[in-house]
Amino acid sequence: MRIAIVDESATRAAVIREGLAAFEDCEIFVLTERKGLVARIGEVAPDIVLIDLGNPSRDVLEEYFAVSRVLDRPIAMFVDQSDEEAIAASIDAGVSSYVVDGLAPHRIRPILDLAVRRFNAFARLQADLSEAKGKLAERETIDKAKRILMDSRRLSEPQAYAELRKTAMDQGRRIAEIAEAVVTAHRLMGGA
Q: How far apart are CA 46 and CA 4, in angstroms?
């Protein structure tokens, strides 16, 4: 496992490193510069990112939230103090685990495990949502194609659907693809 530790303080980074000592087959990268952080994290290509901010200002916190928004990885963020607004912003930014006043070597492993599990659960939810949106869009396209066939060829809804299905089977394509072709052709022919 490749782990990136983002911390401007070598002393605090050492606490996280100590907490990761029990991990076998683990490569640890400590990044101490904020400048060009996203690019450097991209070069390291970690499996998880641990960010320790100590007691950050609002601007620094926002800067790290911006970084976490572009990373598609589990992120655990450690801060000494927080408020409801910062917690809400961390969730919006995709931080998997936001730990307030909890930086201790013995807590690193469970926090890391939690961050990975929450990230994976969220990724599954995102995939399910994307799939559901895709199916809904396909259903809308099929309904639009049925309406076009019903209006242009004076078919009933079951007949229009049967026509789409038969064409899809004859061409070895999905009904949604045939429906999209019908809608596109209708639009090209001046239909609404």
A: 6
In 3-state terms, what secondary structure has residue 3?
strand
pLDDT in tens, 148-182: 999 999 999 999 999 999 999 999 999 999 999 99
* ∠ CA 20-23-24, rounded to 5°: 145
Q: Burial letters for 120-136: b for 16+ Cβ neighbours within 10 Å, e otherwise?
A: eeeeeeeeeeeeeeeee
Output the CA–CA distances (angstroms, integers) from residue 24 to 15, 45, 80, 145, 166, in the order listed: 17, 18, 29, 57, 57
Evaluate whether residue 179 is within a structural domain: yes
- In order of 9, 60, 69, 82, the CA distances from 53 in angstroms are 9, 8, 16, 11
Written as one letter, the residue type at 157 is E
- Residue 119 lies inside a defined structural domain of this protein: no
Domain that holds residue 88: 2-103
Is residue 82 located within the same domain as residue 140? no
For the chain, how many structural domains are there in total?
Answer: 2
Q: Are residues 59 and 10 in the same domain?
A: yes
The answer to whether the pTM exceeds 0.90 is no
The residues pairing with 29 across neighbouring beta strands, listed in sequence order, are: 4
